[in-house]
Specification:
By secondary structure, the chain is of the alpha/beta class. The chain has 8 helices and 6 strands, in the order βααααβαβαβαβαβ. Strands 3-2-1-4-5-6 form a 6-stranded parallel beta sheet, with helices on both faces. Helix 5 links the parallel strand 2 and strand 3. The longest helix has 16 residues.
Length: about 220
């Protein structure tokens, strides 16, 4: 692929900038074992999915889900975050390289969580806006979060086009949503193998976020 010269970047948060998806998957498994349910479920295959989507899949497959299963999972998740949430290797280096570009985060998580941990991990100074799942913005794999992020970028630069933007993602749900926008996608193998990410439509696949610099003219 030709070298891309972006004017703006849209980053996914969980699984792309911070290694939280492994923490959530661990919380699902711990909760399932603790409650003695859903023990044969491959929760790792659901990486990047929103909780409601995981619940729908499990119900569709006929699995019994206790009413408080996801509540207990969330409790365990937030308990683990304080000591287990880390930035992926190369994130700060990459954000420094992109510091003159407009950067927006598009996340399935709620905005309070994303802003809080962006502050805690020292990356909020690079971020110009947050497009997060809520009552009006559908979660990935729908394109809403990315399209809203693009509108944020247009407010900062009215001349920007989708060809000027790159989306960074790690999950299949994220790539599926990003593909619907027509914006180029850099996928990182934090959650899935290179072949799978390419099959889903990623334009560029890297093993570490910092390797994306080799494909971008910054």
């Amino acid at each position: 692929m030709d070298i891309i010269k972006p004017k703006a970047i849209i980053f996914d948060f969980d699984g792309t900038l911070v290694d939280s998806e492994s923490v959530y998957t661990k919380s699902l498994i711990v909760t399932a074992n603790k409650m003695n349910v859903l023990k044969d479920i491959d929760f790792e295959s659901m990486t990047g999915m929103q909780t409601n989507d995981i619940s729908k899949i499990l119900k569709k497959e006929g699995h019994y889900i206790p009413d408080n299963f996801f509540y207990e999972t969330e409790k365990h998740f937030y308990k683990l975050l304080g000591s287990n949430l880390n930035l992926f290797e190369g994130v700060i280096e990459t954000l420094e390289r992109f510091k003159d570009l407009d950067i927006v985060i598009a996340s399935n998580s709620n905005i309070e969580y994303v802003q809080k941990y962006s502050d805690i991990k020292g990356i909020s100074k690079y971020i110009k806006g947050y497009s997060c799942h809520n009552e009006t913005l559908k979660a990935k794999p729908e394109p809403d979060l990315f399209l809203n992020a693009f509108e944020m970028l247009k407010k900062r630069n009215k001349d920007i086009t989708k060809d000027d933007v790159v989306i960074f993602e790690d999950s299949l749900a994220g790539i599926d949503g990003a593909k619907k926008t027509g914006i180029k996608i850099v996928a990182i193998t934090n959650s899935y193998k290179r072949e799978v990410l390419l099959e889903h439509g990623a334009d560029i696949v890297v093993d570490k976020i910092s390797e994306a610099i080799n494909y971008l003219n910054i």
